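User: New here, please read:
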Amino acid sequence: MITPEVIARINELARKSRESCLTEEERTEQSHLRRLYIDHIKAQVKASLDCIEIQDQHSPDCDCGCKKDPQKH
């Protein structure tokens, strides 16, 4: 789970890496925390996309040409 403390630590390590060198342990921790954050964001996006339902807004007798060319809409 991504908590405010995890985000603060990610930012702290990023700041430190810009100002000076990270130790090997810090680089490993930074990589791990970044991966957790990215996986969390991906899961949120997937959950949002899974809730989307596509609806056809056209009636069977519309004259936009969508029934003739299924790729159009």
Notes: Helices lie at 4-19, 24-50. The chain has a mean pLDDT of 88. Residues 24-50 form the longest helix (27 residues). Residues 4-14+23-51 form one domain.
